[in-house]
Amino acid sequence: xxxxxxxxxxxxxxxxxxxxxxxxxxxxxxxxxxxxxxxxxxxxxxxxxxxxxxxxxxxxxxxxxxxxxxxxxxxxxxxxxxxxxxxxxxxxxxxxxxxxxxxxxxxxxxxxxxxxxxxxxxxxxxxxxxxxxxxxxxxxxxxxxxxxxxxxxxxxxxxxxxxxxxxxxxxxxxxxxxxxxxxxxxxxxxxxxxxxxxxxxxxxxxxxxxxxxxxxxxxxxxxxxxxxxxxxxxxxxxxxxxxxxxxxxxxxxxxxxxxxxxxxxxxxxxxxxxxxxxxxxxxxxxxxxxxxxxxxxxxxxxxxxxxxxxxxxxxxxxxxxxxxxxxxxxxxxxxxxxxxxxxxxxxxxxxxxxxxxxxxxxxxxxxxxxxxxxxxxxxxxxxxxxxxxxxxxxxxxxxxxxxxxxxxxxxxxxxxxxxxxxxxxxxxxxxxxxxxxx
Amino acid sequence: xxxxxxxxxxxxxxxxxxxxxxxxxxxxxxxxxxxxxxxxxxxxxxxxxxxxxxxxxxxxxxxxxxxxxxxxxxxxxxxxxxxxxxxxxxxxxxxxxxxxxxxxxxxxxxxxxxxxxxxxxxxxxxxxxxxxxxxxxxxxxxxxxxxxxxxxxxxxxxxxxxxxxxxxxxxxxxxxxxxxxxxxxxxxxxxxxxxxxxxxxxxxxxxxxxxxxxxxxxxxxxxxxxxxxxxxxxxxxxxxxxxxxxxxxxxxxxxxxxxxxxxxxxxxxxxxxxxxxxxxxxxxxxxxxxxxxxxxxxxxxxxxxxxxxxxxxxxxxxxxxxxxxxxxx
Lengths: 438, 329
Hints:
Strand order of the largest sheet of chain B: 7-6-5-8-9
Helix content of chain B: 25-40%
Number of domains of chain B: 2
Mean pLDDT of chain B: 91
Distance between the termini of chain A: 13 Å
Oligomer: heterodimer
Distance between the termini of chain B: 17 Å
Order of helices and strands of chain B: HEHEHEHEHEHEEHEHHEHHH
Radius of gyration of chain A: 21 Å
CATH class of the largest domain in chain A: Alpha Beta
Largest interface: A-B, 23 and 28 residues
Number of strands of chain A: 19
Mean pLDDT of chain A: 96
CATH architecture of the largest domain in chain B: 3-Layer(aba) Sandwich
CATH topology of the largest domain in chain B: Rossmann fold
CATH superfamily of the largest domain in chain B: Aspartate/ornithine carbamoyltransferase
Number of domains of chain A: 2
Number of helices of chain B: 12
Structural class of chain B: alpha/beta
Order of helices and strands of chain A: EEEEEEHEHEHEHEEHEHEHEHEHHEEEEH
CATH superfamily of the largest domain in chain A: Metal-dependent hydrolases
CATH topology of the largest domain in chain A: TIM Barrel
Largest sheet of chain A: 9 strands, mixed
Structural class of chain A: alpha/beta
Low-confidence stretches of chain A: none
Shape of chain A: globular
Largest sheet of chain B: 5 strands, parallel
Number of strands of chain B: 9
CATH architecture of the largest domain in chain A: Alpha-Beta Barrel
């Protein structure tokens, strides 16, 4: 049985002029208003926006180790439902993704799952302990071809170790993605330090603990001439530091999460651990600043920091709960609602911040490509005109810790194509198709 | 009022009503037979995840004086120390038929979580959660202030309008300070927080209180009452956060001693939630002076907790809120 062809009729690439797009043999075979194919499955694309398949630079898939919270299969299926065709799997698994063996296993499980390409992120230090470098070269040379290295969840806080990591990964064009959190300033920290934490009696996570590390790291990157990626920046001050660093020509990129674009620390008032996340939700002023930073290009990308947790890890008192929230299936909607519906980004900008630039940062060559004939058919079709109420119980992710439960958000993913194969069609995952064809 | 979780939840009217009810309860405690039949057949669980002798005994005494059955559940020596969660503990107590759960927990917000989780249907009384709230302490402090400082005669119906209260010590880690700032403000008092800057939280600017770093200057403004907070000695060590250089320096700058006591207005009183660190935040002369009402606070604590349990659990208490709402409308 030859792979199915799809003819996407009357779709709007990047939200622009309508056309039809034929997907065949894993690539975009033809484009144009008059394209037709008798064998192709027709997808009625009226009113739909066509974007390159989304690329997430920051996903926690939890496998190996915490398969009770998420597996590579459930996590990548959630990714497909959210319009992603590639995800970068964070290194804080058990065992840690700090050897060629573990990253190859994750990479292979991703291929077998077939929902989205999985690019493992390698740990910077052995066991994320922050003491000595992991075998970065071995991970880079492995089948997984790791290019992004991060101790995410923990900060590479030792300045010498950070310097060495920044220098070392130049040999294979890698990048260190820093989780910027000064550990001493954030001992036992539970939420953003400010008016709300003072009232709630929860230990504060001050903005300066993030900003101090970012300031140090951009200067280190400048000094050794390396590129640096800053994970999930969350404060107005961080945006200013990145803006300053870029104006100096420092090779730094930065990401913001969907939740930091829309949620604030006020949500901690109900002590619902769904809203406990690291870095913490900040103030409205910070939300405005990260939106402005994303709009003017200071912040390069949106990455989900999808962090699934089991119910028992969230169904408890705030201090005992785990940090993190899911995000793969709501990211595009949040970006649309906060940035597109408000006129601050075009759909072409969305393609840039959620697909093209994350692929470039991760050195992923076959994603984030232009929508053009001959390019890999990694695509997502979005209906921007619907509004939907988020129900985590109906999501593909194994975990229910979405901060958007019961909230109405803009837009939904209608279809996702990975190398010309539908992983999502009519807003539903193509389970059978993926299982048969992977 | 279904629960008592935070002093911030209390309206002026509710707070005065609790103080008035406490006054009635206190009157019964002067009788030879102190026990009232009010809560006969009701079960109050003291759920203590953190060591506390005086607060637990105070709640236990209050519940017993109202004829409730009391179950004391402390984390030590219970299944909690074997890793049972707050949720399972609460479900167990619910299955045993607790009408009220008095909870002390090291995690800020644990009583809030308990009250809103559906794990228990009983009334939840916050007996101290982390650095967050200790509302019955604030109520007993307000009750004590009202008795001493609002003039002669039955203080029923009065609030604390115009009184000036200085709260001195480790504000940052203090649930007593947070509760008192809110309740005293609700009742019309003016609050000044006095502490070294390291022991004042970032974000305090949103609180309805002044902040001073100078105890002598605060005393010069002639407060009607000074409330001393317990300061843990270990807060000075670097492991404890290094909040001040030494206990000696703390005592010199923020301790209430005989000299500062003498500088206070004649009518002013001294409060302390206990347990005291004599020689650190308060000297023996100050603690044992006639102006210290620290022992009386303990007695008032029982009356206030009787009032809270009564209002939360008695049939009339449960419906009072709706009746009052109707009257207001």
